[in-house]
Each structure stands twice: as C-alpha cells, then as structure tokens.
Design goal:
The structure holds 2 protein chains of 2 kinds.
Chain A: H1 8-33, H2 39-56, H3 61-82, H4 87-109, H5 116-121, H6 129-148, H7 150-158, H8 160-165, H9 170-187, H10 189-192, H11 199-209, H12 215-240, H13 244-278
Chain B: E1 3-14, E2 17-28, E3 32-36, H1 43-50, E4 58-63, E5 66-67, E6 77-80, H2 95-101, H3 115-127, H4 143-155, E7 161-165, H5 173-188, E8 192-196, E9 209-214, E10 216-222, H6 223-228, H7 239-243
The chains are: A mainly alpha, B alpha/beta.
Chain lengths: 279, 259
C-alpha cells in the first residue's frame, strides 16, 4: 500500500504538489479577503490562450502560459484603472479574450501532438523533471515574496487607506499580488490543471477563514488544509485509480463542508446547553 | 504658539467640481480641533490632503514646517479612518496583529516587527484601556472597543497629531461620551487632535478650536468665539454655551441630568 512513495513519478508528484499547495493556499488568504477570489479563474483562462499559442509556435506551453498570464493580469489592472468598470468585469473581459484566443488557435491548428487536456485538467503523475523544477521555482518565488512583504500585505488587506498613511505603496503591492497570482496559476497548471487551478487558491483559504483564527494561524490552517488535500488526494488517486486533480479539489470541498458541519454541531450543542442551563 | 500644521490658500477640485476653496488656517501644538461641516463640505478631502493621500492642486500644507510633498515622518501623524477598508466581523485578525501595523510607518524594507514594537503596542492599548484584549479577534469586539483598537494603532508610533474622521459613526451615545473623554485625556497628555464630526455638541467639553467648513472655511477660532457669533446662535453645536450647565437640549454635552 505504501509502495507509492518508492516510485520516482510519485515522489515528483508529492514534492511538486506540496510546494504548489503552500504557494496557492498562502496567496489565497490575501486574495479571498481582498475579494479577488476569482482573479485566479480569470488568469487561468488567459493562460489557456498562452498554452495554445505556445503550442502553435512550437514554444513550450509553460512559457506561453506564463507570458499570457503576466501580460493578461496587468491588462486586468489597467482596464480597471482606466475605465469605469468594476474589477469582476475587467477580469471577465481579459479572461474571455484569452479563452477565445485558445479556442481559436485550437480550431485553426486542427489539433496538436501534445494533449491539451493535460493542461486543462492537470497530469501531475506525468510531470516532466523540467516542468517540476519550473513549477517549484515559481512557487518558491511566490512564497518568498509573501514572506518578504507579509506585514505590508496584511496591513493593506485589512485597511488599504490607513496603509497608505503608513507609507506602504499599496498600488505597487496590488500589482505584485496580481502578478503572484499569475505565477501561481501557471505553476499549478500541471498539478490540478487550468480548469481547477484557482480551486487551490480559493478553497483552502475559505475553509481556514471559517475557523475564526488570528491572521497568522489562518495562513497556517490554509496551508495545512491544502497540503493535506494534495497528499491525501495523490494517495487516494493512486490506490483507487481516480483522477488526481479532481480528487484533490473534491477533498478541499469536503474539508470545507466538514468544517461547516462541525461549526453547526457546536452551535447546536451550545444552544442545547444554554437552554438546559436556563431550565 | 508652535504651529504643527499650517494650511495656506488650499483649493481642491474633482474635475469641474470645487471641493475646497482657498482654505487657510494653522493647528498649534496641543490644539484639539473640531472640524465640522455638512455632508459634501470637504472635511474628508481636507483630511486626505493632510495625510498626503491626495496630491495638492493649489496652495500649501506644511507639517512641522516642512512642505507636505517633502514630508516623510508619517509616524508623527496618527490616523483613525471613518471606515476600515476591508474590515468585517469575520476578518481573521487579533487586536495585537492590527495595532502592530501602526509600527510599519516607522520602518523601511523589510518591515519586520521588533520586541520594542510589541511593547509599544501594549502601551498604546493600555492608553485606550484595551490591554486585556491583546489576543482577541477584532470581530469579537463591540463597535466602541474596535474604535479604541484603531486609536491604539494610530498611537503606537507616539504621534504628535491624531486625526480622526468621524470615528464614532454607529457607536451608541454612552460609548461616544466615554470615547470623547478618552480623546480629551490624550489631548491633555500633549497629543494634538483633529476630529471630524457632524456633532460638535458631544465633544464641546474637549475641543479648543472649531473649524467650520463648507467648501470654504466659514469659521476658525475657539469654541466660545464660534458660539458668540450671531450666525451660530441657533446652531445645535452652540447649545451648551448658550444654555449653560442646565441645558435640556438633546445635543448639549454638559453634565446636566438630560445632557
């Protein structure tokens, strides 16, 4: 049963998955609290256009996704800044343009040798050494930047206006946060796929936020939930021959539901307790 | 008197709309200024210009003798906003985590907290009588307690000037009175205060100056001067002065049974 840890492809999957889970879940807390939760989804759509463009021009799809995501995420910020549109509309415009590019290229290229579905739905078990290294480097950049700017990011997430009076360059940090999201999405492309990439950003953070902890402990809980879902997801997928990305995301949803049920049970129990005390 | 803030011929526009027109006044060390005016009178814009959040279009603001465009010692200015940007009761942060952020204004990259910061955080919380709430989540506190925490965040750098933008919005009257008494005590300790308020009545006991704004500066002087002005006779801000300590008017701040 535990032989899975001896296989090189499983070891690569565990290492890549855990590092990416840490990056996604850390960033997720900031994005969810800043109401940018769907930014990851939008950037994933843009990255799809990048993957298709990369394949069309015989570039590595990773590079195409990275370029498109970085430029697209800056585009979202610019559209929001220069027009009267709300943030979600700006995300919608750029992400659908990216998706449109991807579908258009797929149709004119008449198919590719590379399995495009592996980018859409992930294939962590088939991840190449170079992809693993690139994913880990990107994830470590994300984790490092969050560590360096942790106090500023926390302050800005809590109260942007006051943070400006503390001398924090909030517009610069906002741009940084969006670029980090782009890096995170691209790094998790092979783990859970572009379709589910933002789930590792939104779900662990949302589950951790239900626990009503301090900010630091919320980050720790978010990381814990994400890592657990990746490790358990990989094991379950290996043992029962499930799709890895789907299993990881489903586990995250189960954790969220589990926390809700425990919270409701606690509320019910304390309600019953207070009624019986009053009697 | 030492001038802490000097504002000269300040004007500000949003597009073609004039928000502030030719404002000039000075805030001295030790002043407690009540900044009053109706909605849209430019109070918040003036505060944001004072905090360097808006670029000056016309006129000059000097803080401690330095033009605001060259001013960098933002730790000497504490700010308590009317509304905290992303704050909701579910925000995952403790009182300590929030108050510590006030220390960031004195730091350069990489901005890391020291044990001294943790000590000053506790001192600031003691000043607002919230030291027992250090590890409580901000969302678990009442509106009045939350405002005290935000004041502690502004006090943590030991500022010379504390600017508060309608800090008691949504806070009950008893808590408001306690809150203003606390501001009065801070002012007596030597901190200059600018308080934006709709209702000067409740803070009458503490303010030393009144600035009445309505795009232009209608009045700037002591509270007594403000109320002795014939135009302000019927103004509820002046009821305390007009009616004395037995005032039964709803806005009066004196210690009569109904006020």
């Amino acid at each position: 049963m535990l032989e899975l840890f001896q296989y090189a492809f499983m070891q690569k999957a565990f290492i890549t998955g855990i590092v990416i889970a840490i990056a996604c879940s850390l960033l997720g807390v900031f994005l969810v609290l800043r109401r940018y939760a769907l930014m990851g989804d939008g950037i994933a759509h843009i990255a799809f256009g990048g993957v298709a463009t990369g394949l069309l021009f015989n570039l590595t799809p990773f590079l195409g996704a990275l370029l498109f995501s970085l430029v697209g995420s800056l585009g979202i910020l610019k559209i929001k800044e220069k027009t009267n549109l709300y943030g979600d509309s700006a995300i919608g415009i750029v992400s659908h343009a990216g998706l449109g590019i991807g579908i258009f290229i797929l149709s004119v290229a008449n198919g590719f040798n590379v399995d495009i579905l592996s980018y859409l739905f992930g294939s962590i078990l088939a991840i190449r050494q170079s992809e693993m290294i690139l994913s880990i480097i990107l994830a470590i950049i994300v984790i490092g930047v969050i560590y360096l700017f942790y106090n500023e990011l926390f302050s800005m997430t809590f109260d942007e206006n006051s943070s400006k009076t503390f001398g924090i360059k909030t517009s610069l940090l906002n741009t940084l946060l969006i670029l980090l999201t782009a890096l995170t999405i691209v790094s998790s492309m092979r783990v859970v796929g572009l379709m589910l990439a933002s789930s590792l950003i939104i779900l662990p953070a949302s589950s951790a936020l239900q626990l009503k902890l301090s900010f630091r402990n919320t980050l720790i809980a978010s990381v814990g939930i994400a890592v657990l879902s990746v490790v358990l997801g990989l094991c379950l997928a290996y043992w029962f021959d499930f799709a890895v990305s789907g299993t990881i995301v489903l586990l995250n949803a189960v954790f969220f539901l589990f926390i809700q049920i425990v919270k409701m049970s606690f509320r019910l129990y304390s309600g019953v307790l207070s009624v019986s005390n009053n009697d | 008197m030492d001038s802490l803030v000097d504002i000269r011929n300040l004007s500000f526009h949003f597009g073609s709309t004039t928000v502030l027109s030719n404002i000039s006044f000075s805030i001295n060390k030790g002043d407690f200024v009540g900044l009053i005016g109706p909605n849209g009178s430019g109070k918040t814009t003036l505060i944001k210009l004072l905090l360097g959040l808006y670029k000056i279009q016309k006129g000059i603001i000097r803080i401690n003798g330095k033009e605001i465009s060259h001013f960098s010692d933002w730790g000497t200015i504490g700010y308590v906003p009317q509304k905290v940007t992303n704050f909701s009761d579910t925000f995952p942060a403790t009182v300590q985590e929030i108050v510590l952020t006030g220390c960031l204004s004195n730091k350069k990259f990489p901005r890391r907290y020291t044990s001294e910061d943790r000590k000053t955080t506790l001192d600031a919380l003691k000043k607002v009588e919230m030291q027992g709430f250090l590890n409580r989540r901000i969302g678990e506190l009442s509106g009045g307690q939350q405002q005290r925490v935000f004041i502690a965040r502004a006090l943590v750098t030991r500022p010379d000037l504390l600017i508060l933008d309608e800090p008691t919005t949504g806070v009950d009257q008893v808590t408001q009175n306690k809150f203003y008494d606390m501001l009065g005590a801070l002012n007596k300790e030597g901190i200059s205060i600018v308080l934006v308020s709709h209702d000067l009545g409740r803070i009458t006991r503490h303010v030393t100056k009144v600035a009445s704004l309505n795009k232009k500066l209608d009045f700037y002087g002591t509270h007594e001067e403000f109320c002795s002005h014939p135009d302000h006779d019927a103004d509820h801000h002046c009821l305390t002065i007009k009616h004395g300590s037995d005032c039964k008017e709803p806005h009066c701040a004196k210690e009569s049974p109904r006020c």
